[in-house]
Design goal:
It is built from no helices and seven strands. Helices cover 0% and strands 66% of the residues. It has a single domain, classed as Jelly Rolls (Sandwich), CATH 2.60.120. It has 107 residues and is mainly β.
Length: 107
């Protein structure tokens, strides 16, 4: 179980080039009476690559998939996924995975 207060997972030290990046996680809501809204983002530096919002019902779970393509210059880069439940504090992330697959030129 992962608290939503910071980046949940990341892939760092990616070399220059183009990548297909993806993230997957599932969320749980510990509130037995109320649903909670959760927003998740896949980011590289200051750039949002993908985002998804979901409402997790009371005492329920939801899966979030995120994906995008990105290109890093000669300095390389990193990608990470983070989520927020707007301060409710009842959502938790589980089995967070981030993958970056280097590819040829993006078209």
């Amino acid at each position: 179980m992962t608290d939503l207060s910071s980046a949940l997972a990341s892939v760092t030290d990616l070399s220059a080039g183009s990548y297909v990046v993806s993230a997957k996680l599932w969320l749980s809501n510990s509130d037995e009476a109320n649903a909670v809204g959760v927003a998740c983002t896949l980011v590289s530096g200051e750039a949002t690559l993908d985002e998804s919002d979901v409402t997790v019902a009371a005492s329920a779970n939801a899966t979030i998939p995120l994906s995008a393509t990105t290109t890093f210059a000669e300095d390389g880069g990193a990608v990470s996924v983070s989520c927020s439940d707007g301060g409710a504090g009842t959502a938790s992330a589980h089995h967070v995975k981030v993958t970056a697959l280097r590819i040829g030129t993006l078209h």
